[in-house]
Design goal:
With 480 residues, this protein is α+β, with helices and mostly antiparallel strands. The chain has 6 helices and 23 strands. Strands 2, 3, 4, 5, 6, 7 and 8 form a 7-stranded antiparallel beta sheet that branches. Strands 15, 16, 17, 18, 19, 20 and 21 form a 7-stranded antiparallel beta sheet that branches.
Length: 480
């Protein structure tokens, strides 16, 4: 029974984030659909059936009177040999401080060996085996949820098991023994079965469920500079059809935990057109905006480019001679002089999602500095837009950027005015051959979506909506 108790809890812990402190709008919502809940239960039943062979039921013995004679009996080698759901129905009822998970229709089969012997002479005895089917049983797990070290935990729990109708198939022995055996089973074997199940449930909640909950991500490092936070920011929402977990879903620079000055949109709990999938993870564009802000605040978008940074095959060098035809005033003012470029983001990039796709817009300034005097010849302003395509690799959300458009203008100049259009092709080449490939190499790894150890996404799909994207997927879990 231990595995089914764990599995009844897995659907609560899969994708779950830590307990909330102050309710706020979530930027990520993770929803387990009814099909997902059914999957985790059926997986638990399969695991349970494989483990029943070692399920311990103590020996039962005693003495009973039969028509004026006393008989000793022994019931040994009792095992729960089979357990199955009579249907896939699973009920989840919300309570004031937790929830009840109910399997309303469970069938069990118990096998056992029996022996009886008359106490007095002539010591009539017999032995045999029995298979007992117990139908219309139910299992209820009542959980009170708490918080430990920023993660959801089990504050208390109660397991209720009701064993239902009996169908006894007795092999060997006299017919009168059937009634005695049924009475013994009802009174004593049922009690021992329930006791053993409850003991195993307590052990497995402590040994399996709590460690599983501890794998729920609270803060997920992206690299040495950035991390994403998945703490629970509002109560878990439970209905008869799905369970939704609202997560913070915000990026931070590790050395700068300033909150983004944005507000997530109003996210749906579930997208009906994809409710046949087991899991839905809805990510607001706020999450990506917070990433853009964190990158900007960390000064990563600043770079000093010197001539040695350019590949040897580059047709253009950072010497004013190479700009003689492109920007004549530059060569006139600084003939045959080396330069360096200081590029920096002038504001945080923006990120938007619509049904037609996702777009990153960025703005940067590029200072052309003449060496060795370190004089700034001019500063260009660059505004460019990139398309963003999201995908799923493992349980990570990944991305790919492609070039859309770019424009150049003079921000300031110490060499007079000039036509910047001559630099358009160079700008586009720099974006397509340098900036975008470098960004895509990092985005190919992506970042982990909320999950637990052992969970895999199966046939994940990413769909863009107005203001958010949806990751809809089936799942499998191996940590049971």
């Amino acid at each position: 029974m231990k595995s089914i108790i764990v599995c009844m809890c897995v659907m609560l812990s899969v994708l779950m984030a830590p307990t909330y402190v102050v309710a706020e709008a979530p930027a990520v919502k993770a929803t387990i659909t009814q099909r997902g809940l059914s999957y985790f239960m059926n997986a638990g039943v399969t695991v349970l059936e494989e483990s029943l062979q070692n399920f311990p039921i103590p020996e039962i013995n005693g003495t009973v009177p039969v028509i004026g004679f006393n008989y000793q009996y022994w019931i040994t080698n009792t095992q729960l040999s089979k357990l199955s759901l009579l249907n896939d129905q699973l009920l989840i009822n919300a309570t004031d401080d937790g929830l009840d998970v109910i399997l309303p229709s469970v069938a069990m089969e118990v096998t056992t060996d029996w022996k009886y012997r008359e106490v007095a002479w002539p010591h009539i005895s017999s032995s045999g085996s029995a298979a007992v089917t117990v139908n219309k049983s139910s299992v209820t797990l009542s959980l009170v949820l708490g918080e430990t070290n920023g993660r959801i935990s089990i504050a208390s729990y109660k397991v209720t098991i009701v064993l239902g109708e009996l169908n006894i198939r007795l092999h060997g022995g006299a017919s009168w023994f059937l009634q005695i055996f049924e009475d013994i089973f009802n009174k004593k074997i049922k009690e021992e079965v329930q006791k053993a199940i409850l003991e195993q449930a307590s052990l497995q909640i402590a040994n399996k469920l709590e460690p599983l909950l501890s794998t729920i991500p609270v803060i997920v490092p992206i690299d040495a500079l950035f991390e994403i936070h998945y703490e629970l920011v509002a109560p878990v929402k439970m209905t008869s059809d799905y369970l939704t977990i609202p997560d913070k879903g915000e990026f931070f620079a590790i050395d700068n935990q300033t909150e983004a000055p944005y507000t997530p949109g109003s996210l749906p709990d579930i997208v009906p057109s994809y409710e046949n999938n087991m899991l839905q993870i809805i990510v607001d564009q706020y999450t990506f905006e917070s990433l853009c802000l964190s990158i900007y605040n960390s000064k990563v978008l600043e770079k000093l480019i010197v001539d040695s940074d350019l590949p040897a095959s580059a047709p253009l060098r950072l010497n004013t001679t190479y700009f003689q035809d492109l920007i004549p005033p530059l060569y006139t003012a600084y003939p045959d002089m080396m330069m360096e470029l200081y590029a920096y983001a002038s504001r945080a990039p923006s990120f938007s999602i619509s049904e037609s796709g996702a777009t990153v817009k960025a703005e940067a300034d590029i200072a052309f500095i003449v060496l060795p005097s370190n004089q700034t010849a001019f500063v260009l302003n660059v505004v460019f837009a990139l398309s963003a395509l999201a995908d799923v690799k493992g349980t990570n959300l990944t991305g790919t950027l492609t070039y859309d458009s770019a424009s150049l203008s003079i921000l300031s100049t110490n060499i007079g005015t000039f036509d910047v259009s001559a630099l358009d092709d160079i700008l586009v080449s720099a974006l397509q051959l340098g900036v975008i490939p470098e960004a895509n190499s990092k985005l190919s790894t992506g970042f982990a979506l909320p999950s637990v150890d052992g969970l895999s996404f199966v046939n994940a799909t990413v769909v863009n909506y107005e203001g958010y994207l949806l990751v809809s997927t089936d799942a499998s879990i191996s940590s049971l």
